[in-house]
Amino acid sequence: MKPIFEQVSIIGLGLIGGSLGMALRKNKAARRVIGFARRPLVLRQAKRLGAIDDGDTLLCSDWLSRSDLVVIATPLDTVPGLARRVARMAAGPVIVTDAAGTKGSIVRALRRPAGKLIFVGGHPMAGSERSGIAAARADLFRGAACVLTPAAGTPKEAAAKVAALWRSVGARVVVRSAARHDREVARISHLPHLTAVGLIETADPASLKLAGSGFFDTTRIGMASPALWETICLDNRREIVGALDRYLKRMTTLRNQIRRGEGKTLRRRLKSAAAKRKRLVRRAG
User: Fold this and answer.
1) Could you give the 3-state DSSP secondary structure of residue 91?
2) Which of 103, 240, 275, 283 shows the greatest Cβ crowding within 10 Å of its Cβ?
């Protein structure tokens, strides 16, 4: 199969960046994958795992200029600055996308084009409680949604190229506005993480000795990077607070139904939730 891209550059070789590089090379979607990471050890690990063909600890204008597109897979608060640096270093127009968990602040920061920068926001809905290049795997994005948030005026060709990138690694592409993305991920990604945190905090040491698969399954994501999630929560605070309010309202209603002994009402809610979960599993499978 002929590669879709001659060269893709990835800035940040953690779980997402490393997995993307591995998938691109495994699927032969890119002829060359260049990686940038702060530590030489990470570059060596990435090469050993087959995530990159070459790389450096410093951004290199030559490699960036020869890339079909550049993917920034670093914490969300670093994305705008890195995107502008890439634009300054590139010889001509450069398509840049990212993989950050919120989109509003990034799209607003890059709304006015910086020189040769063509930015297409992206967020692959795939991850793990683990982090770093050692956790990377080539099948991470298979079957997962990847949300693109092109701003008004983004060239269709650029958005199509970013969409092709994610489809080449098995993701299904969904287009949203940045505002809608942040509202929806607050409900299906950010809220579950905070719920896991609450469950862990609520359980006392004696109870934890009895914890089984149910508790472990529902709290697994609570082990993810605290620094990453602090940034996400503060960046998307408005939508997360709204999601928490909706959730707490439902939990209060549920608490009152249990307290009052409303068995039939409780069973209807449990049955409805179970049916909804089954439909979700069928759709995902």
Assistant:
1) coil
2) 103
- DSSP secondary structure letters along 106-153: HHHHTSS--TTEEEEEEEES---S--SGGG--TTTTTT-EEEEEPPTT
Classify residue 66 by its DSSP letter.
T
Q: Are strands 117-124 and 145-149 parallel, antiparallel or unpaired?
A: antiparallel
Q: 36-65 pLDDT, tens per residue?
A: 999 999 999 999 999 999 999 998 888 888
Mean pLDDT, rounded, of the chain = 93
The 10 Å CB-count burial string (b at 16+, else e) for 116-125 is bbbbbbbbbb
User: pTM for the complete prediction?
Assistant: 0.91
In angstroms, the CA 115 to CA 139 distance is 35
Q: Which two tokens stand for residue 64?
A: 């960036």
Residues 53, 62 contacting (CB under 8 angstroms): no
Residue with tokens 């620094």: 227
> Which tokens is 12 given?
């940040």
Question: Across the chain, which distance is largest between two alpha carbons, in Å?
Answer: 70
| Cα angle, residue 117 at apex, residues 52 and 238 outer, rounded to 5° | 90
Token pair belonging to 189: 């990604």
126's CB contacts (< 8 A; 6+ apart) are 16, 19, 140, 141, 144, 171
- Give CA separation, 24 vs 20, 87, 122, 246, in Å: 6, 23, 16, 39
Residue 19 sits at the vertex; the CA angle it makes with 16 and 20, to the nearest 5 degrees, is 85
The percentage of residues in the chain with a pLDDT greater than 90, rounded to a whole number, is 83
Which residues on adjacent β-strands are paired with residue 75? none
- The alpha carbon dihedral of 94, 29, 57, 230 has a sign of positive
